[in-house]
Every structure is written in C-alpha cells, then in structure tokens.
C-alpha cells in the first residue's frame, strides 16, 4: 500500500525513494498499490476523439476510442 506500516526501515526508505522519484517525474501513485503509477498529464496522450469523451475515475482513464 502507499503508506507502508511494516517493521522494515529499509523497505520504508526504498518505498519513499520510489514515491519521491516518480512524483518528481510527473507520476501519481495509487493509495492501494505501491507499484501502480499514472502520469499526471495523461489526457495529453489521448487521441483527439477520445479526449472529448474522457472521464476520470481515480487515476484511470475511462472512455471510448
């Protein structure tokens, strides 16, 4: 999970380093998964037709192509 509560200081340090690096690169993390990141400006990568019907639910794109 996004907020590690285990006993390992090493795991906590690695998780925070990963989160910091991904945030600095423009990615958002999901609270329920430590390994899942989405680019914060994902809409710019959609085809023009899909931009008109795009909706956000969490960090995932839902729409029709």
What this model shows, in words?
- The protein has helices at residues 9-24, 48-51; strands at 27-30, 33-39, 55-57, 60-62.
- The termini are far apart.
- The protein is built from 2 helices and 4 strands; from the N terminus they run H-E-E-H-E-E.
- The strands form 2 sheets. The protein has a two-stranded antiparallel ribbon with strand order 1-2. Strands 3-4 form a two-stranded antiparallel sheet.
- The longest helix is centred in the first third of the chain and has 16 residues, at 9-24.
- The chain has 65 residues and is of the alpha+beta class.
- Residues 56-65 have low confidence and may be disordered.
- It is elongated and about 50 Å long.
DSSP helix fraction: 25-40%
Q: Element order, helices and strands? A: HEEHEE
Give the N-terminus to C-terminus distance in angstroms: 31 Å
- Broad shape: elongated
Give start-end ranges of low-pLDDT stretches.
56-65
Estimated share of beta-strand residues: 25-35%
Radius of gyration: 15 Å
| Annotation, overall tally of beta strands | 4
Report the major sheet. 2 strands, antiparallel
Q: Helix/strand/pairing class, anyone? A: alpha+beta
The number of distinct helices, counting runs of at least 4 residues, comes to: 2
Q: What is the average per-residue confidence, as pLDDT, rounded to a whole number? A: 76
The strands making up the biggest β-sheet line up spatially as 1-2
């Amino acid at each position: 999970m996004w907020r590690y509560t285990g006993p390992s200081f090493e795991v906590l340090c690695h998780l925070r380093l990963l989160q910091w690096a991904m945030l600095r690169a423009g990615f958002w993390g999901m609270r329920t998964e430590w390994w899942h990141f989405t680019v914060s400006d994902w809409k710019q990568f959609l085809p023009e037709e899909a931009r008109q019907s795009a909706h956000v639910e969490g960090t995932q794109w839902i729409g029709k192509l």
